[in-house]
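Reviewers of the previous submission asked for a worked example of the structure-prediction workflow described in the proposal, so we include one complete record here. The input consisted solely of the amino acid sequence. No template or homolog information was supplied to the procedure at any stage.
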Amino acid sequence: MKKVIFLPSAFAVCMVLALSFCKKVEITDPSPDNQAIVQKYLALDVSNVPNYAAPVFPVPYGPNIQATDNAPSINRVTDAGAALGRVLFYDKNLSRNNTIACNSCHLQEKGFSDDRTFSRGIEGELTGAHSMRLANANFYTGERMFWNKRAVDLEDQVTQPIKDPIEMGFDAAHGGMDALLQKMQGLEYYPALFEETFGSREITEEKMKRALAQFVRSMVSTGSKFDQGFTAVFNPGAPGAGNGAPFPNYTQQENRGKQLFILGPPQGVACAACHTLPTFALAQNSLSNGLDAGETIIFKSPSLKNLAATGPYMHDGRFQTLEEVIEHYNSGVQNGPALDNRLRIPPGQPNAGQPLRLNLSADDKAALAAFLRTLTDDALLVDEKFATPFR
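From that input alone, the workflow returned the following structure tokens.
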């Protein structure tokens, strides 16, 4: 099976020439020595890694869905790169005391999140934010990452937990990334994997960023009950491509919840104005959701796909259930400089500019919760290519 790698020397030439992409070099077979080394530790055939680069999208996603991917042109998902990222994601050796991996806080069966309000780091100390779901992170076109948008992009985000003194422990006081890279050079499967992926046995943080980001971007969620229903009614000539039509695989309650989520007043509450269909990634222009009065930080949300796999919710895990989340939007939104205008009373109405109060009935709140539960992609939560590769 052919693979595409990027040789460091070619990359340097590309930079000099100011090209937007590097020269691609094809190799036909992996090194037999590398194959043997890798398989001592990993259930991974480097000559036949899973398909990460070319997911099959349901019809409603349209022919141009991959154009909305936030990957930079020099780091599109490749099978080999995502496979390396998968190893990095599950390897506890990337923590200072070999106890924590990325997946320790982002569990596949829990929607790549954690059912704790805050996760535990290398010494048992709690992290500073709730673990964010990862599926469909590639479809957030605002690009900046983390709840508080402190990372420039996904490549910038993926190694920050490694360098955090609480999370994985390779902070400056403990040698930083240089100490980790030296440690990884001594783990014989990493020089082999980096050579197979990048054409060189040299391990760098930049290469780690690229591989980890590719693995996260490959977590595309397209197999939920919602996706199946939308595919059944898809009509490119209809408003919303037909997403407002009743889904034949939905209950009456789920269809009512979908109507509330998609449509604006008076038929619905227009949640989809910020959580865009069909990926349910956050719209780029979204501001904050009024968790606290006077809020000045613009928080972002992950895709809503798989949010019912586990609570709690929000950046600080303050809500334990979907019902609590819905009640916040129904009656609890607080005013502040960062509040999104879509959560304010529109101009020309009494109390314009103040936070909306939806005044939903108990039945409508239950319908919204039922709809949100249809966003769970059970196949993604058990897909072997996203599970640990370690023996």
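The domain at 32-69+76-220 is CATH 1.10.760.10 (Cytochrome Bc1 Complex; Chain D, domain 2). We consider this example representative of the routine output the project will generate in years two and three.
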